[in-house]
Each structure stands twice: as structure tokens, then as C-alpha cells.
Write a structure and sequence with these properties.
This protein is α/β, with parallel strands linked by helices and 346 residues long. It has two domains: 250 residues, Alpha/Beta hydrolase fold, catalytic domain (Rossmann fold); 81 residues, no CATH class. The protein has 14 helices and ten strands.
Length: 346
């Protein structure tokens, strides 16, 4: 193995950390002008050798809304990021060595939800074709379903469930930390703030987005509005043009538009369990968690999703923690070994 990278030394990990570029045809020419060439952060465990014979399973990590790959390896005193957690668990022999791939799914509107969208680009396809293809070509992986798991937090948790449902055979396990689900419970709470924010710009989405991007400081209401726009770009696009999507409420009255919201609900993991039973049955582990005081009500969402899966005859590991939505990286101490433990080994 070559000398560890400067990034690995900066993060204080025993393994190595490499920065790659994934060239994605799935994101090429997207209407928002987001880059099709994306950073991929690859963590390689101690002892990894490019010229060796050993092959490793891979954990694919999807970040949450407003996140990107770089943010996932940011450091804070007394806390560990996803790479540091993987490294520590391997060093402590609480988890067998794995490769960790940190995927970037950021968009101009704050996130892609990791779904295919004519507005954003095909982010699910990007993950299962372009990212996995790059990792399998570049590193000594177990390049098969049994050698891969996907996990994420918040919107990334939703993304992990979504790609597992949408692309059976790509992964053999998922973990969703505080993932979006039970949409009718968790999303409408932000609709009034989004409507009010857009009203100040005459309901001109492009003008609102331009002001949001240019502002040195943004209000909580503005953040709620851009988040709803991001979801609309993923769930209810209308054509391949920037800001061509439908919002799930009437712009002038704020009343929920049931026809548009129905398009959002079609992505809800709770509603997709029955139709995705075959894909879900293939998985060796279905893992859900959340904090009991989650600010978005995602603890309720996780309970409903777990119950729905069990009623469909699917086993699910469901954990609850005494916290909210933020600063919950310590939960990787549970999920990472659980995922690694069900993957194939050479």
C-alpha cells in the first residue's frame, strides 16, 4: 500500500482516504447546470493494497439535504464523521474491514433526494450505475450484490431506501438514519413558510432562488422554501427546464394541491413497501433508526415504515435514540457493523 494521503493524516485515520472524480452520464446536461463530474470520497481500510489479492465489500453513504461529499468529512472537536467512525470501528475490531464510498448528490436547490428526475438529472441511476461502476473499476471490491450496502441520513436515508427499492440487485442491505418517510406527516408542516417566502417574490421561483443564492444570511423561512423547491424538483417535475416543477400547494391561497401531493406520495417508502416487496425481500438487512425527539416527526415516520414492512412479512431492525435530528453520527457505531456483518467476504 502506498503512503497514506494527506487527507487521511488530516482526519487522523489509520486507513487511507482518496478523492476521486466520477464522470456521470446520468447527470450530463441537467437543467440546473449542476456538475456531471462529481467528487467521490473513498475510504480504504488499513492493509488495503491496490496490487493485492484481497477484495472488500463496500458501504455507499448518501448525505442529507444541503449536504455534499465534502461536508461529510468535515471535522468537529469531540465528534467523528462517517469516515472516522468506519476507521475506528475497524481498528477496534468491532467491524470487519470495508471500503466506504461517500457519494455527492448536491444540487443547486440543496439536494436531489437521490431519485431520477427530468428536472435534476437521474441521481438514482448515477448512484447504481456511475458511482458503483467507478468504485468497482478503481478498487478491489466484491463487485456483486452481496458485497454492497447503502446507508444515509435524513434525505440520504430516504435515498438509501429508494435506491434499494428501485434497483433490486444493486445492494444487499440498507440503513436509513432519520430518513424521510410518511410524507403526509412530515412535509406539509413546511408548506406555509414556503408559500409566504415565495409570495414576497411574486411567486417567481427563479427570482427567489437568485436572491437566496446571493444573500449573505438566510432566514429559516427561506431555508424551508428552498427545501420544498428541492423536493418539488425531485418529486413533481414537469419538464426538462430549470424550475419547471409543480408545488404541492396553491401559490396564492396556500391550500394543498392533492393532485400534486399525490405525486410526492408515490415516492413515500411507506406507500411503496407492498409494490417493492420483491426488491425488499432480496435484502439481508433492513435497518431504520431515529431520535424520539426528531424535529421533523421522522421518529413517527420510522415507526410507521417499520410497522408497514413487518405487516408485509419483512423483518426490519428498528432503533430509537434519545435525541433529535442533528449531531447523531454516533449512531454509525450501531449501523456500520450491522451492515458490514451481512456482506460477503473473500
Amino acid at each position: 500500500m502506498e503512503e497514506r494521503s494527506q487527507l487521511a493524516r488530516l482526519l487522523g485515520v489509520r486507513g487511507d482516504v482518496r478523492l476521486d472524480t466520477v464522470k456521470s452520464e446520468a447527470l450530463r446536461h441537467n437543467p440546473l447546470g449542476d456538475p456531471a463530474d462529481r467528487v467521490l470520497i473513498a475510504y480504504l481500510p488499513p492493509g488495503y493494497d491496490d496490487n493485492g489479492s484481497q477484495r472488500y465489500p463496500v458501504l455507499y453513504f448518501l448525505h442529507g439535504y444541503t449536504g455534499n461529499a465534502a461536508a461529510m468529512i468535515g471535522t468537529r472537536p469531540w465528534e467523528r464523521n462517517i469516515v472516522q467512525w468506519a476507521d475506528a470501528l475497524i481498528a477496534q475490531r468491532r467491524m470487519a474491514p470495508v471500503i466506504l464510498a461517500v457519494v455527492d448528490g448536491f444540487t443547486r436547490l440543496g439536494g436531489s433526494q437521490f431519485v431520477d428526475s427530468i428536472h435534476n438529472g437521474d441521481y438514482a441511476t448515477y448512484v447504481v450505475r456511475d458511482v458503483i461502476g467507478h468504485v468497482d473499476r478503481t478498487y478491489r471490491t466484491i463487485a456483486a450484490e452481496g458485497g454492497r450496502a447503502v446507508l444515509g441520513k435524513s434525505s440520504g436515508g430516504f435515498g438509501a431506501v429508494h435506491v434499494a427499492m428501485e434497483h433490486p440487485g444493486a445492494f444487499s442491505a440498507f440503513a436509513s438514519h432519520s430518513g424521510d418517510a410518511y410524507f403526509e406527516y412530515v412535509y406539509p408542516i413546511a408548506f406555509p413558510a414556503a408559500q409566504r417566502a415565495l409570495e414576497r417574490f411574486g411567486f417567481d421561483v427563479a427570482a427567489f432562488v437568485a436572491d437566496f443564492e446571493a444573500s449573505p444570511k438566510r432566514t429559516q423561512e427561506a431555508y424551508q422554501a428552498i427545501e420544498i423547491l428541492g423536493y418539488a424538483a425531485a418529486y413533481s417535475p414537469t419538464e426538462r427546464r430549470a424550475f419547471a416543477f409543480e408545488l404541492p400547494f396553491d401559490l396564492h391561497t396556500g391550500e394543498i394541491r392533492e393532485d400534486v401531493f399525490a405525486r410526492w406520495l408515490a415516492f413515500d417508502p411507506v406507500r411503496r413497501v407492498e409494490g417493492s416487496r420483491t426488491a425488499l425481500e432480496r435484502l439481508r438487512l433492513r435497518y431504520l433508526d431515529c431520535g424520539r425527539r426528531d424535529e421533523y416527526g421522522l421518529d413517527i415516520a420510522a415507526r410507521v415504515l417499520a410497522r408497514t414492512m413487518r405487516e408485509a412479512g419483512l423483518s426490519v431492525r428498528h432503533e430509537e435514540f434519545e435525541d433529535g435530528h442533528r449531531n447523531v453520527g454516533y449512531r454509525y457505531e450501531v449501523s456500520l457493523p450491522a451492515l458490514a456483518g451481512v456482506l460477503d467476504r473473500t
